[in-house]
Write a structure and sequence with these properties.
alpha+beta, Rossmann fold, five-stranded mixed sheet, globular, disordered N terminus
Length: 666
């Protein structure tokens, strides 16, 4: 083992916290296994390198488990108010900071309506005490008779762990109703806090450097808040106005370097894809191109959790990868790729004290394994599976395919094939992704794998308008709802038929959000191509949705004031891109073209969907019923827009399994 790991040892994760249904003799994985959230995720090493913590699933909630590296002395930390943990950090060796979230009432709205909220707590591993870190100040009347009582913050988020300060962290808190967030330095044991810096008018987005110093801020000034504005702190600690901001028309701020005058930005490079650059903040001059990919945009900067240094940049082709700048990380990555061949391996944690690395290893069939790599001793230890109920040997296989469409463009799609594939055309499900989600890739996907386990071929096309393939590809989808975007999905489906992969008499189209819209419009535009359709939280009534976005969310894209109450950036984006050039909204609206739907329809919507009101699907179902169409409607009480909750996914999978078996099954 001088140069390369030759064996992997294993420890047993405390699986008593999770119960898994076993597969049947026919290898048919239970539906609930696919609907479930991961058994564990977001592993992180303690600062001293002696413990590891996870977000772990227990009793239907995401809690925290911490244990020794050898798997002993495991402790389950239940969340306050029985909410789900969204993320956490080790603040020091004995205190964990957790951010929990869920739908709750929010007094600031003076309503009983539940809204998404996050709350931050510290948990002391020794005293077992919780401290609410974002509790509002209830001191009552302040100076000059004005009330100093703070409103309840809707979103409490961790801004910086302050690795060199074991008693404090930086947090973002929004005590007002103006959507702005202040940066506070918070004591992790008492919850006491103070502003980390004085307000600078116009600045709404702050960024800290690798020393946890607030170094740069961007926002807008002017009477209409429409003039770009920025400041940065020089080496002497003086705030300086950034005079040259023309670069922001072509480049997007990505992060800070170790030099306070040099930043990372993303912008178009060769092949029309986003590349990573370094830019001089004072002059606006590009200094170098740091990294680019030919086929896809670069993703986000990756940082070392303890040094704060930028160590690499992510990108996603078939799988998510990281190009490491740091030599040490780069060496570890090469070692892992040799030791864990055939998998995509990512470094997800590092402890410099003991030179330990946390590794996530994944394939298209394997949702993920965690390993611990002791670099000093060249030892690799298996930690745990992220989904113990999934057997990679019986999972479907996923591969990327390149599909030529009618105008000569080539799009990427991902094809999932059942594990027990027979050499014949298969019943097929086409799943267009939501425009609110990331584009599809080859990594393990609960929905594709569920349908593949039931014998279906699954195609997920990244149509024009998908992110990740350059600005031109993205913008080609603007104002092309039911146009170019829909044509790409249609052409991808026909490609499957022409290749002899899909049974042309047994194809159904299924989608969530925009995908639900595309599923309905697909049956309208191509009445003989799809035999059934499923729309979940789909944009079924375009005129009504446009009206609601402009009123409920204050989402008029001509307004640039980012401090408007209840503004929703996704609504703004949909308003700018939703529609079809040259056509009225009614002409591309499934509700208004319901007479043209002549295949069985399953409509589902989440009652707690704050993006697309759930009643729109119910209204379409009633209209289809009056037209004597074959339609069924299912309401999900708590599911969210993208159906992220476990119980909602269970309903979704149960209903679609029955529906698909009835219309395209064997």
């Amino acid at each position: 083992m001088k140069h390369l790991l030759t064996q992997v040892t294993a420890i047993v994760f405390l699986c008593a916290f999770s119960a898994h249904a076993s597969n049947t003799a026919s290898n048919k994985v239970p539906l609930a296994t696919f609907a479930a959230k991961p058994d564990l995720r977001a592993a992180e090493l303690s600062p001293n390198g002696e413990k590891i913590a996870f977000i772990a699933r227990f009793a239907g909630k995401d809690n925290i488990v911490f244990q020794n590296l050898d798997g002993t002395n495991g402790v389950l930390v239940r969340t306050p108010e029985q909410l789900d943990v969204e993320n956490f950090i080790w603040a020091n060796d004995t205190v964990i900071i957790m951010v929990v979230g869920g739908l709750r009432t929010w007094g600031a709205l003076q309503s009983t309506r539940k809204v998404p909220r996050t709350t931050a707590f510290s948990y002391d591993l020794i005293t077992k005490e919780y401290t609410w870190l974002g509790a509002p100040d209830r001191r009552g009347i302040g100076r000059k008779g004005f009330s100093s009582t703070e409103r309840l913050s809707q979103y409490e988020t961790i801004f910086d762990r302050l690795p060199n300060d074991h008693d404090h962290i930086l947090m973002k808190l929004d005590f007002g109703l103006d959507a702005s967030k202040g940066i506070y330095k918070v004591n992790i044991r008492t919850g006491r806090r103070g502003k980390a810096l004085a307000n600078i008018d116009g600045i709404s987005n702050w960024y800290a450097d690798q020393s946890s110093v607030l170094r740069i801020g961007f926002g807008k000034k002017g009477r209409k808040r429409d003039r770009p504005y920025g400041v940065y702190k020089d080496a002497d600690g003086t705030w300086i106005t950034i005079k040259e901001l023309a670069w922001r028309k072509e480049y997007k701020f990505e992060g800070l370097t170790s030099d306070p005058k040099i930043i990372f930005v993303k912008g178009l490079a060769d092949h029309g894809r986003d590349a990573l650059y370094k830019l001089d903040i004072s002059s606006g001059e590009i200094l170098e191109k740091t990294y680019q990919r030919e086929a896809v945009d670069v993703g986000t900067l990756q940082y070392d959790a303890w040094s704060g240094a930028a160590i690499g940049i992510s990108y996603t082709e078939e799988f998510r990868h990281v190009k490491y700048f740091d030599k040490g990380y780069r060496t570890v990555q090469k070692t892992m790729n040799k030791a864990l061949k055939g998998a995509t391996n990512s470094i997800v944690g590092h402890n410099p004290t003991k030179n330990l690395y946390l590794i996530s290893s994944r394939t298209d069939r394997n949702p993920g394994h965690y390993y611990l790599y002791d670099r000093a001793n060249k030892a690799l230890t298996f930690i745990a599976e992220t989904r113990a109920g999934i057997d990679p040997n019986t999972a479907g296989s996923t591969r990327g395919v390149t599909i030529p469409v009618r105008d000569g463009t080539e799009i990427t799609a991902f094809l999932t094939t059942p594990s027990e594939t027979v050499h014949k055309a298969l019943p097929t499900i086409v799943i267009p992704h939501s425009t609110l989600s990331t584009p599809d890739n080859a990594e393990w996907d609960y929905l594709s794998q569920f349908y593949a386990s039931r014998g279906y071929l699954v195609l997920r096309p990244n149509y024009r308008g998908s992110k990740g393939y350059g600005d031109a590809f993205l913008e080609q989808g603007s104002m092309q709802w039911s146009g170019l975007m829909q044509d790409d999905i249609t052409d991808a489906t026909k490609w499957l038929i022409n290749k002899g992969l899909a049974d042309p008499d047994r194809i159904c189209i299924v989608g969530i959000s925009y995908g639900g819209y595309a599923a309905l419009m697909g049956t309208i535009k191509e009445p003989s191509l799809y035999k059934c359709t499923v729309s979940v939280n789909g944009a079924v009534n375009i005129p009504r949705l446009r009206y609601l976005f402009k009123t409920k969310f204050n989402g008029d894209p001509t307004k640039t004031d980012g401090t408007k109450r209840s503004r929703d950036d996704n609504a703004v984006r949909w308003l700018k891109h939703m529609g079809l050039d040259g056509y009225k909204d009614k002409e591309i609206s499934p509700y208004h073209r319901a007479r043209e739907i002549n295949v069985p329809v399953l409509l589902m919507s989440s009652k707690d969907d704050f993006f697309v009101p759930f009643h729109l699907a119910a209204t379409l179902d009633r209209r289809l019923g009056k037209l004597k169409k074959n339609s069924k409607y299912v309401r999900i009480d708590i599911g969210s827009h993208l159906v992220t909750r476990e119980d909602a996914r269970l309903t979704f999978l149960k209903e679609t399994e029955k529906f698909l078996a009835q219309h395209i099954g064997d």
